[in-house]
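Sample A.
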Amino acid sequence: MANHSQFGFQDASSPIMEELVQFHDHALMVALAICSLVLYLLALMLTEKLSSSTVDAQEIELVWTILPAMVLIMLALPSLRILYMMDEVNEPDLTLKAIGHQWYWSYEYTDFKDLTFDSYMIPTSDLPLGHFRLLEVDHRVIVPTESKVRVIVTADDVLHSWAVPSLGVKTDAIPGRLNQTSFLASRPGVYYGQCSEICGANHSFMPIVVESTPLANFENWSSLLSS
């Protein structure tokens, strides 16, 4: 989860988020190279070391036409690869339906019978010692570790957005429409998210908590909850 004065993304806990962090670093390096080149040329202009004949040279014009195209290709190829990975949902191990309401989430495990629950934020006055304010819920989403989870996202009233940054997941919840995404939690842990679409007065008070646990623990939890 995020920490105070944190600079950068949260720790990646899924393969997709690892790819996104690597692409972010790649894009920053490209941007740094462009800025360095522009500053270098600007310094040459200010010190008059770049003559007017060089500025009007066709060779230079050819370079500054081809170079931006190469930069765009360097950014587009890995970006398209990640986009295809994020949209690919093949043979999930578990399907979860998340429904946004004002201002809470409800969940349905479609692979199980009668495994549904609502998830409300725990008020600060009822929060146990050591828990996180405005982030804890009364019922967490439990998923098995190293299992591909498909999430079907929709809303009951207004626009919402189901987002868990550590897992690289952010999908709009639109009334009357089903959107889907997927993730694979690469290690056990508790991952926090929030509604990322302004949805009214209590938009900030509908957090998302996903707990990744070993498969045996998940099976015990699901059997207890559905019984």
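Sample B.
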Amino acid sequence: MSSNETLKVLQIASSGMEFFHEQVRVLRGLGIDCDVLYYPPDSRKKKQIHDGLLRKVYGHNPIYYAIRGSLFYPKIVQSTLQTDYDIIHVNSGVVAPLGLLQPQRPIVLTLWGDDLLGNRLAGYQSEITKICAKRSNEIIVRNEEMKNVLPCDATIIPSGVDTSRFRPMDQTASKKAVGWNAADLHVIFPYPKSQTKKRYHIAEQLVEQANMALDETVQLQTISGVDHEDMPQYYNAADVLLLPSLREGSPNTVKEAMACNVPVVSSDVGDVRERLDPVSNSYVCSDDSELKDALVTVLQTGGRSDGREYVEEVSLDRMGERIVAIYESLLEDTEDHNQEII
């Protein structure tokens, strides 16, 4: 690829997560021509029924994923035959084997966290991810823990936050906008209750303990299924973000709260300690007792954090620039290798 040509990348992803949408958007803004394939590729009801039957027969195990992968394979072949992509960028270890189905183009593999550190498929997912990582040309991970787990080298690039969207707003006006009681204290838990690793039941217990320790009423606000563009209003209405999670990669919720100058109380997971280390009125905790004490302290003292001062390093633009640098370096290495063969 010459310097004046547009770099063409096929993005393969396991789902349409908001942070993946934003990654594609910022890469396109930087001049990268991105096509996207989602696995599973079709959300129509007929396909959902078919997938549901597969899952009922085989369960979430390697056989189920192998069958789904074989059904997805023609789409990858068709895409790579129709378009001369420079790079295949596979996003998530769940779809990592699919990138290897085409051996002609260099592969960038981004791991999100649970695909490497979690216990999916009774631990098999982590092992499959490691095998695929060794066969990829470049690997991107979210934090140092993930890098240390891999059997090969990787580049740490935290997921990025849109600092133009997530910014400080007036808290009183934000409470009114989202319909929260202006007299109460509000703890935001921006995840579905069903996500086991987020430990909603612990969040409930911590807020109950905070209510017993404080004179004011503390409300736990569970937010999910809200349009991402509306989330800044919810963050700004909150007094603190609570993340008692078991494991994370580089949680965007923490960085979004930082960008809004909202205090954060979190368990010590992923890159949270690195992100919050310089931030005022925010705490990273080793156990549930520390989480309770930190939550009470933040609610008791009041005030915002200075997180926005430290979030630029993990802005969307910075993330995009670093990914593009990996693309360009990989293509240079590939071209040099091809020249040596010639």
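B remarks: The chain has two domains: 8-160+315-341, 171-313. The mean pLDDT is 87.
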